[in-house]
Amino acid sequence: MKRVSDIDPVVLERVRKGTVIPAQVLALDENRKFSPRHQRALCRYFIDAGVGGIAVGVHSTQFAIRNPEIGLFEVVLRETGKFIDEYCAEKGKKILKVGGVCGKTEQALREAEFEGSCNYDAVLLSLAAFKDSSIDEMLAHCRKVAEVMPLIGFYLQPSVGGRRLPYEFWREFFTIDNLLAVKMAPFNRYCTLDVMRAAAESGRDDVALYTGNDDNLLVDLISEYKFGDKKLRIKGGLLGHWSCWTKKAVELLDELHGVIDRGGDIPQELLTRAIEITDCNAAFFDTANNFAGCIPGLHEVLRRQGLLPGIWCLDPAETLSPGQFDEISRVYAAYPHLHDDDFVRANLSRWLAD
Fold it and tell me: How far apart are CA 233 and CA 165, in angstroms?
């Protein structure tokens, strides 16, 4: 069993202060086979960009890696974990390694135990397999997984496999031991508020609160929540949107932390930039088609930068939606200050080297 206290103190402090944790995408070649070279390059890109963690085996990595006929779950988690460890050692850095965990309890425990054996620090727990389960059944499941690995709770939006998780669930969830963080990604202000109120009323100050609300991420990160005398903030982000243009995401979070630390009014320019980021996310995540192209959309951005060889997904039918390519081109041209093409261009050959 791994505990939160087993996480390197430097890493743990950074997670609690708030950091950028991109959700890793899956690098495939033209035959839809795993491309270790490009997966390693992505890890190097994230680490050099200054992230505080990387999440692997999550939605952006494609849940289908777990399908028996594909059989990539262990390969991808093991190899990506190794790439992270090797490059961090080379660079003298330490970051949080997060592994995604899915399925009912037997599968989830098996995945958590495997990730622990690969030196992951914590697990991001999807409850998509519990669509018709009771709150008590879901909580019992969460507690069992937390007995194996430090837990990051996950509020996943219903449009990509999640379900509504009421305040009552979250209030009890915050009593779970070995809880590191909660990622809120319901893409819904009311649902996010349920989690924040539950966190405030739980009295837990040791659980990091992270946004995955790509549609509202900047506002999430500058907002102060107040419930009675209790004040709290969302400190960082764990999200697919930050798997591209990652250097700018790190700079943004540092800037927001500085604004909060200095106090005073929130600059109007930040609110404008919040809308610009949401506009980019709409293109990347294909909101016009109910998120159908959300994964290949991220691939397309990384392909344009040279970090991926193409936009291939495990499912040949999963590709850009009609008009999505043009939407990505539009936001690329409209917001040049949001991309990190110069940073990638300066380092790409090194990241792709053996």
Answer: 20
Q: What is the mean pLDDT of residues 257-263?
A: 96
Nearest Cα neighbor of 144 from 100, 105, 183 is 105
Residues forming a β-bridge with 100: 124
Residue type at 226? K
* DSSP-derived 3-state class of residue 174: coil
Q: Could you count the other beta carbons within 10 Å of the beta carbon of residue 50?
A: 17
Q: Is the Cβ–Cβ distance between 175 and 202 less than 8 Å?
A: yes
Residue for token pair 């899915």: 102
**Per-residue tokens: 123:** 């697990």
- Predicted confidence (pLDDT) per residue in 89-132, tens digit: 999 999 999 999 999 999 999 999 999 999 999 999 999 999 99
The CA-atom distances, in angstroms, between 161 and each of 11, 72, 203 are 30, 21, 30
Give the C-alpha separation, 234 to 252, whole Å.
14
Residues 46, 84: Cα–Cα separation, whole Å: 9
Distance CA 151, CA 153 (A): 6
User: Whole-model pTM above 0.90?
Assistant: yes
Write the pLDDT tens digit of every residue in 218-234: 999 999 999 999 999 99
pLDDT of 64 > 80? The answer is yes
298: tokens are 């991220």
Q: How many CB atoms lie within 10 A of CB 342?
A: 9
Q: Rounded distance, CA 128 to CA 108, Å?
A: 12
Length of the chain: 354
